[in-house]
Amino acid sequence: MPEGHTLHRLARQLDRLFVGHPWRVSSPQGRFAAGAARLDGRTPERAEAWGKHLFVHVGADIWQVHLGLYGAFSFRGDEEFSGAATLGAPRTAAEPVEAHYDDAGWIVPAAPAGAVRARIHVRHGWADLRGPATCAVLDVPDYERVITRLGPDPLRQPAEVLSEQAAGDFAARLARRRIPIAAALMDQSVIAGVGNIYRAESLFLEQMDPQTPAQRLSQEAVASLWHRLTAQLRQGVAEGVIRTLRPEDAAASHDGAAGRRHWVYQHQGTSCLRCGETLAAQELQGRRLYWCPGCQR
């Protein structure tokens, strides 16, 4: 499932390519036809992400997208429409566009391929949304109900700043949870935007037992975890990938580290690059948890 950094990158790309420009909105698949009709012919005003949710504001209407496990946007257009070709779940790269324009000077998009839930089209390009878990148009009260249910998003802090309010909110939500910290981090009402990779990697780097009840963590441990997740998510936005095993880490030169981007995620059965213990994995609330029994206890 795309994690929070991908949604923030997606919001930035939509802001740059679509916001402020009149758009045409359709649903080639048909499942979003009514919502597309509400948005079509208008001008989007801003795009934002909160955790794993994307919101595009169009007057009093808000387009909500949750990519889920399989959703992704693909982008195509002319030389004035540049950006990532796809954002979300992995997709095959699209062929280069040979641009043709209609009488109004708008690029003519290629015929939809596959189950395109929504297509958004501006003068120089278009984007297709496939496979989302949620694709809906909300009014303001519905939008406010959605965000009220979400926990603090580290990527909504001002750039290069750690918000005491957001960190305190995170600490307060953990203090009310008896569940293991590994489960709490996947609860989007505790912290928004963290998925399975950031969960595993942050707990490893904090040397935190994933089974520790969330409410038993010290204030110092919670503050350090918030700082760690903030740094990791910001790196993900900047680089477009989750790379927690950094080139500057001493362990990156280890014989078993060649080509690795992560310390523990999907490396069960191999030796820990820090302590040598065999990395483990188990199911926790329907998701695979990865950790080091040697470092994290």
From TrEMBL:
UniProt record, GO biological process: base-excision repair
Gene3D superfamilies reported in the protein's UniProt record: 1.10.8.50, MutM-like, N-terminal
Enzyme Commission (EC) number: 4.2.99.18
GO molecular function, one term: oxidized pyrimidine nucleobase lesion DNA N-glycosylase activity
InterPro entries from the UniProt entry: FPG_cat, FPG_N, H2TH_FPG, Ribosomal_uS13-like_H2TH, Znf_DNA_glyclase/AP_lyase
Every FPG-type domain range: 263-297
Keywords: DNA damage, DNA repair, DNA-binding, Endonuclease, Glycosidase, Hydrolase, Lyase, Metal-binding, Multifunctional enzyme, Nuclease, Zinc, Zinc-finger
SMART domains referenced in this protein's UniProt entry, alphabetically: Fapy_DNA_glyco, H2TH
A Pfam family that the UniProt record links to this protein: Fapy_DNA_glyco
Recorded family membership: Belongs to the FPG family.
PANTHER family: ENDONUCLEASE 8 (PTHR42697)
Protein name: DNA-(apurinic or apyrimidinic site) lyase
Source organism of this protein record: Nesterenkonia xinjiangensis
